[in-house]
UniProtKB/TrEMBL annotation:
Record-annotated TonB-dependent receptor-like beta-barrel domain positions: 196-669
Family recorded in the similarity comment: Belongs to the TonB-dependent receptor family.
Keywords from the named record: Cell outer membrane, Ion transport, Iron, Iron transport, Membrane, Receptor, Signal, TonB box, Transmembrane, Transmembrane beta strand, Transport
Pfam families (UniProt xref): Plug, TonB_dep_Rec_b-barrel
Keyword Membrane applies: yes
Name this polypeptide is given: TonB-dependent receptor
GO molecular function: siderophore uptake transmembrane transporter activity
Amino acid sequence: MKIRLSLITSIILATSSFSNEVVELEKMSVTATKVQTASKDVSQSIAIVDEKEIADKNILNIQEAIDHIPGVQAESSSNSQSPRLIIRGAGLKARYGVREIMVMKDGVPMTDPDSFTRFDYIDMQDVEAIEVQKGPGSINASNTTGGVIQLITKSVFKEDKNSIKVGAGNDNQRNLNFKLRNAFDDSNFMSFSFSSRKNDNSWRENNEFDSTQGSLKYGHIFSDDSTFETELSYTESNVNLPASMTLDEFEEFKASGTQEDTSSQWQHSARDSKILSLNAKYEKEVGNITYKPRFYFNKWEHFHPVTGMINDSDDNKVYGTDLELNFKHSLFSNDAMFVAGLTAKRDKTNDSKKYTYEDYSTKTQMTWMGPVSKIEQTLSNDKGDLAGIENSDTKLYGLYVMERFKPIEDLSIDISARVDKLKFDIDGNELIKYDYSKENYATGKGEYSLQKDFTLSSAKLGLNYSLTDNTNIYTSVAKANQAPTGSELQSADDDGIDLEKTNSINYEIGLKSRTKTYAYDMALYQNNVEDEIIQVKNANGDTIYSNAGETKKIGFEVSGIYNINKYISFGANYAYSKFKFKTFEEQVRGTTESRDGNILPYIPKHQYSLFTTLNLDNGLKARLSTKTWGSYYMDNANTEKYEGYKFVTDLMLGYEKKDHSLQLNIKNLTNKYYAMEASKDVYGNETYKAAAPRSFMITYVYKF
């Protein structure tokens, strides 16, 4: 720790002597503080992926956009919009999907009140920029300790050409996107976008993906310059989720590059979704006050075969609003800003059903009770007997405030806080359950109900000081709570465990510099988490959740870019993570084992990436990037490590001339075979999820 603090101090002294230059590498954050702010002036670690990077990398899913950001782990086992996301260790407890991280699109929460996020209806080809805010305490984040990912789509008010994009690649990859925009007059604007994607992923069984997405936006500018903007979108997405591999099967994959005939019971996992969403926002300025009310609604359904059960839910609705106002005023200076808002969101599900699998093979094993039949493998994802039905109603209400001011010219201070009330109301009837110890179906627990509520608070104090015109130093203290999800509460309740909310406190110091030739960000942080929710296995092999006691996370992150000249740039990112359990007892075969002092699994101690870009006046362009994960422990007991991977490299070659663009993107250029996730349970069973081998796509874009 002393070494790193000394390093930062040395850099501060060195950068203080740089001559002042025009800032050109600065990116603007439009969401971190609810007010458009240069990223250098934000008193927290924030990363911004801009429109050019999204286009150059031909980004079609969220993980490809942010997997190079230090402190962020973004991987997908299906090469589709089904990622596992972790920010500074937050999100580690999720069995699938994303937890502990708030995802928003144009200010609208895509994360449900209980912290689950669906990425199915993100069309990355309509996204203009992505902001990643790391750590707790964001004014945007309700029920979130990990951070916020904000997606900013292309505004209907922004003048832009129409375009059509066509892409094709190996594994029957297909991509079609077109966007039309029209200004009817000076006050009325409309745009329409459509995307269709397909990928067979034939190197692995049960790994196909396809999606169809459409979005219609309308915008109006009133005579008093206030604006109204609305979007109606529809998504239909079908994702097959491949099975995990044993160690022997993983070795076969590394030798052949294909994954076939795995021994997993659950060969036909999937998530097929249909989502209709509507949002509207209004902005009006009256004197020094700007009003920004926002309303949103979405209706979704999904067919979701998972371990043991098939989820089939077609009556799900989400309603929400965010009523924000900004007040420019004088406090020490004329640059002060007060932000306040009210939020409300309701997620209601009616008659969500679970079914057994209809088709599966069985095996017979001898026990002391005689022969026992066990499920060996599923043969399809056809629905069998009705196993259960459930209704849930999750409500969240919140209030947030922020004050930002400058007591002296070079020092800005921001103070923010929010309080949210989260209520769960769940009832249902479990007729049949999957018994992990018997590896077959058994009689369920019958009728049940669960009511639980949490009061969640978050707060942040940040100071940002300008050392020079180019370089700022900041420090911040932030805290937030994280409530369990509905499924976690039910699982814990069945085992007599009363889950508590998580409390996260983050201390951070950082340095940011921007000039016309280089830019860099550094952050040193310590995150103390109490009652962190961890998934463990009980004596019957069931996944249950408990509070871990305490974890301590220390990390150092640095990212930078240097313009060698106006044509060539070079960049690097690095994260050091030392995350430990301070107190944690894990159940192992009916007994408890202390994990105090152990390292959290799946988090590599070292993670880095490198990239270089080329942009010539004649339209030729190129981008070469590579990423490396160091080794990490596979289990809470720290009995075994996975080696990680080195220099997984992507290449882009492109040519632009007037309204035409042709681009080749090759992912995993050297065709490395490795695991995107390796884990080991308390019984010693190892499982591996393969990362995608080499793939390529050729894309043509015409603007008109």
